[in-house]
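Friendly challenge for the regulars: who can give me the structure tokens for this chain first? No prize, just bragging rights.
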Amino acid sequence: MKDMAHVSSPRVILYVDSLKIGGAERVTLTLASWLYQAGWTPVILTRKPLGRDFYPIPVGVERAVEPADPDWLRILGWWGFPWRVQRLRRWIQRERLSLAIGMTTLPAIKLLLATRFLALPCVVSERNYPPAKRPALPWRLLRRLTYPWADLHLVQTNSTGKWLAQHLGANCQMLLPNPVQWPLPRFDPAPEPQAWLAAAGADADAPLLLAAGTKAHQKGFDRLVETFALLAGSFPALQLVILGLEATQYHGVDQQAALRSRLAHDGDFQARLHFPGRVGNIIDWYQRAGIFVLPSRYEGFPNVLLEAMSAGCACVASDCLSGPADLIDNGRNGLLMPVEASPNDWAETLAVLLADAERRGSLAAEAVEVRERFAEVALRESFLKALAGLPGAEHEGVLNGQDG
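First reply, four minutes later:
Bragging rights claimed.
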């Protein structure tokens, strides 16, 4: 049933590949909620089907999926891309939209092409530091062509914004770091940390290193497992939990098996490495952790680090581009490691922190200030004001008359 207050409100599409578990997907849902609260009718459109959704859809947000490619189009592969763009363009015209927002590189490119020469403002957002994750050559060329067309680029960090301006001519920008929703929401699946660890034979008060992510290489989990192997002998009760990795293949790789292979055949170490998979109660895991670790090779703006700090974790993160240094003031509210740090370097730092409860407590106490610094209310207001300034949009009256 439609909300009658929003029946005639301007419609906005938020276009993203899927709503699988991940930071870009969570932020897409947050932006959709903000827009609904401001009087819009937001529609989240994905290429992947509803069965891939991990997160619940917020109140007032509509959900749509692109039609599956017919067999002949799948056979064409890349050569069918113009047809897909035209199909998206027809959908946009039928929906009578007032604004379009593309999240992540490929949806942003496709949306910019589909809306070209339409009287429709288009906003896009990169979600990783661009040079760290280069798309295939055709996408790089299309990105260079289309990004100057965007009416606004939402950038998470200054370093990303600077790169986009210098290399792609993306000069119309707004700095919009990820917000933190506090308290963090809970939803299913919700495995209870103590019960999980007890079932695995861990002591109730066992020290716990926690990490989270869906892309093992980007997140540096290979380094983390090697670090754990160096620590496990000196800390015989220490447990390592990595959330988010499924027991299925990702781009042809069984990530869990690949990480376990780095512990060789040591049965004790293997028993202390845990993969609960996707969880909807991540706050419970943050609160159980002794230390949260983010050894990433690159980031966009690390949601999990922001959440862990909000939950009062002592955090240690790689000083990679981009994001960790925007959150952590090294030595005060967390620790930053050089991006090229070896597992030995990580083990040395973590060993000192594991042995010093007072130091962990001090870092954790300072970390929670990010709840205020990245609170939704201020970032939401800035986002809506930026949209109100876009040229040629019908939505300005809605934004200026937002009810909060």
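DSSP finds 19 helices and 15 strands in the chain. The radius of gyration is 22 Å. Your move, everyone else.
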